[in-house]
Amino acid sequence: MTSSRTNAAEGPVPAREVARLALPALPVLAAEPLYVLVDTAVVGRLGALPLAGLAVAGVMFAQVTSQLTFLSYGTTARAARLHGAGRRSAAVGEGVQATWLALAVGLVVLAVGQVVAPWVAGALGGSGEIADAAVSWLRIALFGAPLVLVTLAGNGWMRGVHDTVRPMRYVLAGNGLSALACPVLVHGIGGWDGWGLEGSAVANVGAQVVVAVLFLVALLRERSAAPGDDPVSLRPHLRLIRAQLGLGRDLVLRSLSFQACFLSATAVAARFGAPSVAAHQIVLQLWTFQSLTLDAVAIAAQALVGSALGAGGVGRARAVAGQIARYGTVIGLLCGIAFAALYFVLPGVFTQDAAVLAVVPVAWWFFAALQPVGGLVFALDGVLLGAGDAAYLRTTTLLSAAVGFLPMIWLSLAFGWGLAGIWTGLSLFMLGRLAAVTLRTRSGRWAVAGAVRP
């Protein structure tokens, strides 16, 4: 009987447990890019120039979340290990410290962003008109930066304690209200003509206010401790913040490689004119949306792997890794088939501009073909992030960007390859990451037991 229980604890988790964590995480991950897709469709009705401005500004604002994902993923990894070790209050405490850090960093981002926005938009946007449109959107949207980071921290600690339902409710509430407001603020209603491109930025900030307040209220309600545990402290503790920053350093460097790729891609696409950068914006936002959709399974992996290692279950963590790899591959394959089938319908939802639609197919078929690769890569990223194996992910992602993506897109600028060169670079980037995470997962060296990773 004892042997049977041990084997169960060391074996894979039930599929329903993965689904319990992944399915509520899916709307959370998809909500922001889905909102951006709605935003893209609404702004696209204004013409190619506002859409190009949104493309440049959107990539710039994405730095806020992309560079600081350790507030979410790093917090999940640390909180999940503590939760697996039976220390819920300490796990929630990681969320408190991440929230303090989010507020501090968010205010810095807001202040610095207002100063550098014109220069960065000019560097990325190429033409003065595109840059001006991007700055007009970005100056408003930056007021939501601290709120976005608070939301990242909230998602992190809640996933760590295996609660993905409340984040789903919070994010859907904020983004749903904002999606309803966006068309009105952009195009107006009745006799009012609306605010145009700036109206979408106002709607964006409105969503972030609602969601951040809900996460802060949830954190304040965690005042009472679990039985036998210490109370949750709401004060900042520099020791814990420094520990989070240590893990965050590796995740920030990893994120920098992503953003170097995507910023460079947008900058190169802008050099080929407004239709090219607008078409790139449409496919890139679909890529972002689908990447985060596939990442729902990886969120479950982070929580389950972290908890298993926190409880000393190395065998279970490895079994979960195998499960997640299979699930990610199958889901990615199905998504690739779906997007290939939707080619004749979906681009027209975002714009009716004939010049933009003529360029979309160049990137579309790369996007559809990469879905199975992305499904496996994102799944195994979740396994390694849940184990706190951030240093390995940092190094291999930087190498994949330096060897695969960046050379190809700059060559595409030099030789006039356009979106075909940009998306070939993205394909090389993803294949490099696939090789790296597959080798690491099979090695088993990431599976280190303990409430805190050494």
Spell out the key features of this protein.
454 residues; mainly alpha; 17 helices; 0% strand; globular; disordered N terminus; cell membrane; antiporter activity; MATE efflux family protein
Gyration radius, in Å: 22 Å
Major sheet size, sense and barrel closure: none
Mean pLDDT: 85
Q: How many β-strand stretches?
A: 0
Please write the string of helix (H) and strand (E) elements: HHHHHHHHHHHHHHHHH
Counting DSSP H or I runs of 4 or more residues, the number of helices is 17
| Structural class based on helices, strands and sheet pairing | mainly alpha
- Described by its quaternary structure, the protein is single chain
User: What is the CA–CA distance across the termini?
Assistant: 33 Å
Secondary structure: helix percent: over 70%
Q: Label the overall shape.
A: globular
Family: Belongs to the multi antimicrobial extrusion (MATE) (TC 2.A.66.1) family.
Transmembrane segments: 21-38, 50-74, 95-117, 137-158, 170-189, 201-220, 251-272, 292-315, 327-350, 362-384, 391-411
Membrane topology: Multi-pass membrane protein
GO molecular function: antiporter activity; xenobiotic transmembrane transporter activity
